[in-house]
Amino acid sequence: MSLTLTALPALEDNYIWALIDDNKRLIIIDPGEPQPVLDAIDQQQWKLEAILLTHHHADHTGGVKSLTDHYPTIPVYGPQETLSKGATELVEEGDDLELLNHTFSVIATPGHTLGHIVYYAKPYLFCGDTLFSGGCGRLFEGTADQMFTSLSRLNQLPDETLVCCAHEYTLSNLDFAHRLLPQNPVVSDYRNKVKKLRENHQITLPTTLETERLINIFLMTDQPEIIEHFNDNPALTTPAQRFAELRRLKDRG
User: Fold this and answer.
1) Which residue of the set 60, 175, 222, 229 is catalytic?
2) pLDDT digits (tens, 9 = 90+) for 1-19
3) Fewer Cβ neighbours under 10 Å: the N or C end of the chain?
């Protein structure tokens, strides 16, 4: 049975991901607010089957209570840290969920938060605030080493993996990458493409891991041009150390 992927814009720059099968059964990922979901269900006559949560932040969980008030029997899957946010079924690293006749594997990705998880059902990767197009999440609770390890794990997935991240941060991330690597033609060309999309109020997601390996500097810390960029800092000798410095620079703006 085939699946259809749809992004529902929410809040200021969030996307609530919707995955729908041929029978109009629906899975929602990270509902930051309820109304976009309720409106889409009403308009499309979808049948809500489950809600998946990646972490506890309010812009990913704020719609759960209202949705479960409307659909009280719907399971809400999430890590331990989402228990207080409405999760009814706790999941963790190594768990597999059978939903819409597909298997969703749970992968632990600490860094943005300590309990952050992602869901992978080939080719879909619902990665919350761990991996963004051209970037990665801020380190609110975890360490740079944890986030580097989490991204390295996700980077092992196939090229065709569809990266379904939860924010429209692509242009900002590519602006940062372009400042660091102004001579990189792939980053420059992709940034120009993204600028045109955003000028036309179009979404830049999902992206693919194949693309991200070429334009996301947080996945390129073992590449010669990133190594060369930090040549004047003898303390940055490993990919993980270079990642930590990139994250620090991005946080400074």
Assistant:
1) 60
2) 799 999 999 999 999 999 9
3) C
